[in-house]
Amino acid sequence: MVHSEQSVEQSPHPVLGVDGCTDAVEVGRGGFGVVYRAWQPAFSRWVAVKVLAADWHGPSRTRFERELRMLGRLSDHPHIVTLHQAGRTAAGNPYLLMAYEEGGSLSHRLRGGTAGDWREAVAGGITVAGALETAHRSGVLHRDVKPENILISGYGEPKLADFGQARPRSADRTDPRGRITASVLHAAPEVLRGAPASVAADVYALASTVLHWIHGAPAFTPATGESLDSLLRRIAVDPVPDLRAQGVPDGVCAALERAMAKDPALRPATAAEFADELRAAQSAAGVPVTPFVLGGSDTAGPAAGEPGGGAASLSLTDRRRAALALSATAAHQPSGVRPRTLLRSFGLLTALAAVLATGYSQAVPTPAPVELPITVALGELELYAESDEQVVSVRNRDDRPVRVTGVTLTGPSRADLEIVGDGCSPGPVGPGDRCEVRVVAVPRTAGPIRASLELTAAGRSASTTLTGAAQPRRASRDDAPPGPCYADAYQVGASAYGYAGGLKAISVKQYWSPSCRATMAYVWVWKQYRDNVATDGGTWTVGLAIRTERPVSRQRAVGQPYELWTEPHRSAGTCTTASATVTADRTKAATSATTEPYCDR
Description:
EC number: 2.7.11.1
Low-confidence stretches: 1-13, 297-365
Organism: Micromonospora halophytica
InterPro entries: Ig-like_fold, Kinase-like_dom_sf, Prot_kinase_dom, Protein_kinase_ATP_BS, Ser/Thr_kinase_AS
CATH class of the largest domain: Mainly Alpha
Keywords: ATP-binding, Kinase, Nucleotide-binding, Serine/threonine-protein kinase, Transferase
CATH superfamily of the largest domain: Transferase(Phosphotransferase) domain 1
Oligomer: single chain
Shape: elongated
Protein name: non-specific serine/threonine protein kinase
């Protein structure tokens, strides 16, 4: 019987053929197939669906089943990406359905050579070390720790991902054909020489990733025009960069240098030992010590690899397939390292993408000709307050002009965001040129903000994820007076505005104290109003009240107050509004504003 695979149907929202998943948008691809972000309405959440476009009866099946078993055993760890389910799409493609980590990859955050804060990087390294140690104690070598395979959750937590190259520790022997599977920029020197993968090699890769996180670039970055042979010699001989000049404490530098020693015997024996050295360096530097989280089981269960514990062979039938596999990942390779040079120098396949490619029966869908950031971080926002404008840059990576259409917001928080500027739709975007879409957020509910900015270019969909978190605005932000009711009060409902001469004159807010079960009103007189009225010594009067059936907690300020608070009004079980009027004493012109009711019922 002849078995054939079908590629996933391509449309503005590809139909994945995975029950319960809608609104799929491509977020990544490699030789293995495509990763989609999809919406699960039943759970009100985004998920990542990794769809393989591979020969189900070839080596890809072995690799797929191995990754499934390993993730199934390990994904209960809080810092390993969570696997929800697996199966085959309606078109017959195998898929893994995993948690969608909204922060994107660490690699995306480090793009552009931006150096990171050593405190954040060390804390992240300790966190990932807990995940890596858990995998090791379960009998699994990751074999591909690097920034691309560390994802950042919506809460800023690093998560170790992509076990597509992982192997059981019992299978840590060299390939009989002398082939190497490694990411050159983070692989241990002995692995690049053909030695088997090991715990020490995983520790090296993690330390290399932490150094990259701090330094903004890999320890051994290829120079322009540098040959692969030269790069490999430097990795084998040269010391790692000294980060002390960047203000990194000596203890951190010493821990990284030991973990990246050329001789694996000189490195920490385990990921846990490496984490201990980083934690000691944190303590010595006077920063909070990051918890080291280890999985519940300290012993290895059944073999995580193939039946009988044998190592899987990722055989390639010929050099043509190898070249095709490598070309799918060439976009991740530094410009000075060419795919043909890799094949010629090694006589093997060195893949720099998240997973390896072999031979596939169907081509994966063509990506959109434009490039967007994977995620746009909105940051910490306040309820009912308009955020700063966030600029989403769209680049035409094609060699022809591209027309961008259908710029829209989707996702569970789309009502809290607004497109305030679309510089892409008016005309075609030239080759290599960029256009911008500007977005603001006005969150109306507390908690995570999750939405997508989507657009269409040349008939293909592209998107970026917008993430943030909204918290209530505390009364202290408006210089609340002292007192227990003001101490825990937070704003309820949107601010109300009053206008004079076409400009904002006052803003009125209503605050609620849970401990006192009381409401209070606050008014702010805007500077442009004060400047206009105060000409030639003019003054104004402010009246402020909490209202139920009749005005209560009324306060009146005479002169030139910038802000005013009412006393707390105990309003449990009632609905209240905050109302204010500012009156110019000379002209008697009045401006008023009243909030929407807030009901404590």
